[in-house]
Automatic annotation (TrEMBL):
Protein's recorded name: ABC transporter permease
Keywords assigned by UniProt, alphabetized: Cell membrane, Membrane, Transmembrane, Transmembrane helix, Transport
Membrane topology (UniProt): Multi-pass membrane protein
Annotated family: Belongs to the binding-protein-dependent transport system permease family. FecCD subfamily.
Family matches, as Gene3D superfamilies: ABC transporter involved in vitamin B12 uptake, BtuC
Pfam families listed in its UniProt record: FecCD
Organism expressing this protein natively: Streptomyces poonensis
Subcellular location: Cell membrane
GO cellular component, one term: plasma membrane
InterPro entries, per the entry: ABC_BtuC-like, ABC_transptr_permease_BtuC
This protein's record includes keyword Transmembrane: yes
Stretch forming the signal peptide: none
GO molecular-function terms, A-Z: transmembrane transporter activity
GO biological process, one term: siderophore-iron import into cell
């Protein structure tokens, strides 16, 4: 009689176990409910507490009382937080899928800071004032930064490994941050307007600004979501994906383009907010598994919830002042990043 050493059989990782469609659908519904609750909380809570009756009145367009006016001003801020959080969460999931890198994130890979440097340079030296121009310049900066980091991370033996990409992204992000400071400091005329934007936040949102960036975000969302099936093939490896009929280079370039559009547009309107794209996809894999057809919508929903919740926390803990949402997400994301780096089993996705 033979025996099997069960210790030699690895336990399945919770992140790669296939989830039944019914379970995923229930989690998706729960994510929608969480997002709705966080949006209501964002309108209700801040430096001035607003009653639920005033929230509903503000949603109906009333702004007669101070409470209703406060709630009315918070509505576009809430919408912007949801859009930017969804964009960053989705972009992070796509970047991790494209590079098969668990450390990939718009902030970690220097994409957001590249967009920031491009915008600051255009404003300081070329007199850029158009809101749409901000977005186009940010997209160009994000794209150049992404290509640069991937090129540097590909040098040496083994190609673009997760650790090399993370190191290249961190170094590039630090260098770009220094250049942004070098550009801003001598220019007193732009220092004030970019001081808070550098940190990242959604304060001062308006529906006019949202309307200007919405077409770019819509294109980015569409491109990323349509890349889901191709990302599933890339997860099997380039050779096997090509054997299944996928044009690997086209799939990777298209998905990367969608994530760059989302990163650039988000940075142009809200500044370089970090770590949302890192934390959210890992959390979503625990709920939805690794199928990108489910993972990407989950990442968008939870990304919007996370950034909106972080904005509420920043407004509540420092009343009557507020902590910018970029600081709150950094406090949350930095320990998580260290945890991911220290997990020896996480080499690639």
């Amino acid at each position: 009689m033979t025996t099997v050493d069960t210790r030699a059989v690895p336990e399945p990782d919770a992140a790669v176990v296939r989830r039944p469609a019914r379970v995923r659908a229930l989690w998706l519904l729960a994510a929608l409910l969480v997002l709705a609750a966080v949006m209501v909380a964002s309108v209700a809570f801040g430096s001035r507490s607003v009653a639920w009756s005033d929230v509903w009145a503000a949603l109906g367009g009333a702004d007669g009382t101070l409470e209703e006016a406060a709630a009315t001003k918070r509505i576009p801020r809430t919408v912007l937080a949801v859009l930017v959080g969804a964009a960053l969460g989705l972009a992070g999931a796509v970047m991790q899928g494209v590079t098969r890198n668990p450390l990939a994130d718009p902030g970690v890979l220097g994409v957001n800071m590249g967009a920031s440097l491009a915008v600051v340079t255009a404003v300081a030296f070329f007199g850029l004032t158009s809101a749409t121009g901000y977005i186009w310049v940010a997209l160009a900066g994000a794209a150049v930064s992404a290509v640069f980091v991937h090129t540097v991370g590909s040098f040496g033996r083994g190609g673009a490994t997760p650790l090399k990409l993370a190191l290249a992204g961190a170094a590039t992000s630090a260098a770009f941050a220094s250049l942004v400071t070098a550009v801003i400091l001598p220019r007193n005329d732009v220092t004030g307007s970019f001081k808070l934007w550098q940190i990242g936040g959604v304060g001062g949102a308006s529906f006019d600004r949202i309307g200007q960036v919405l077409p770019f975000l819509a294109v980015g969302f569409a491109v990323c979501l349509l890349s889901a099936r191709g990302l599933n093939s890339l997860a099997l490896g380039d050779e096997l994906a090509a054997g299944l009929g996928e044009r690997v280079a086209v799939v990777r370039a298209t998905a990367a383009l969608g994530s760059v559009i989302l990163c650039g547009a988000s940075t142009a309107i809200a500044g370089p907010i970090g770590f949302v794209g890192l934390v959210v996809p890992h959390a979503c894999r625990l709920l939805a598994g690794v199928d990108h057809r489910w993972l990407l919508p989950f990442s968008a929903l939870l990304g919007g919830s996370l950034l909106t919740a972080a904005d509420v926390v920043g407004r509540v803990v420092a009343r009557p002042a507020e902590i910018d949402v970029g600081i709150v997400t950094a406090l949350l994301g930095a320990p998580f990043f260290i945890y991911i780096v220290r997990r020896q089993k996480v080499r690639a996705l």
